[in-house]
Amino acid sequence: IPLLALAACSQAPEAANTAAEPAAANVAEAKAAPRPRSATETYADKTAAYNSYVRAAAALAKEKASGGGVRSYAAMVAKEQLDFGLRFKLATAKVPGLLANPTLSDQQQANLTTLQNASGAAFDRAFVAQQVAAHQAMLPVQQGYAANGEDAELK
After folding, report:
1. Cα(71)–Cα(120) distance, rounded to whole angstroms?
2. Which sign, positive or negative, has the C-alpha torsion 6, 8, 14, 16?
3. 57/12 Cα distance (integer angstroms)
4. Helix, strand, or coil here: 140?
5. What pLDDT does residue 65 have?
6. Angle at the Cα of 82 from the Cα atoms of 81 and 84, rounded to 5 degrees
7. pLDDT mean by block of 10 residues, the chain; 155 residues
8. C-alpha–C-alpha distance, residues 54 and 62, integer Å
9. Distance in angstroms (rounded) separating the CA atoms of residues 15 and 12
10. What pLDDT, on a 0 to 100 scale, did the predictor assign at position 33?
11. DSSP assignment letter at 66
């Protein structure tokens, strides 16, 4: 009987390891699969990315715009978005666990590339068109969160 017990003991760690492997795989899968972002996180991400994009576009326009009106508009946008960005960071800091991701969308990155490659009047037209489109796209995001958002700090 002691030999059987000893034999069983020598097999137990292998059986335990085999049983533990699927559990370890489940833990690894759980760590690898990110959880879906909440409505507040999604709103914060879109707002932070918008702010980053508009500020970057305005910085390019302050350097590259051929028209004084476009350059002045870009300076105003840069200042307003800097102020907004600071207020937004303060507001998001009051929401426990919220960390906005300012990563630009593919479209925003493509728009900046277009501006980097444009010059003169073509730059001015592209910048103005992009600003209008970006504001129009962001307006329903802001209005939607203001009406239905989960966190009062961000409304």
Report:
1. 12
2. negative
3. 64
4. helix
5. 96
6. 60
7. 39 48 54 83 97 97 94 96 96 95 97 98 97 97 96 90
8. 12
9. 5
10. 72
11. S
